[in-house]
Amino acid sequence: MDLDDAQADLTVAAAVAGCTVAVTLILEYILIVEASTVLRLSPLAVYVVYLFGHSKLPADLDQPRLWVALSVFVGTAVILISS
Description:
With 83 residues, the protein is mostly helical. It has four helices and no strands.
């Protein structure tokens, strides 16, 4: 593992963690919606897929910004589904 891989992993992990926390806070305190724990933690699924699947993708698709965008998309979808 080189420094570039570590930076990409950290970027994706931080974005997924931020999305997960943001989804939970928005659902709990802004929308005041009772959502299941599995639904609130669903952005973490993006990170699990990233960990086990990103090395199998072509280099042009395996960009941290695409994984960050996917986690934001999943978080937004969770908010829209729950509200």
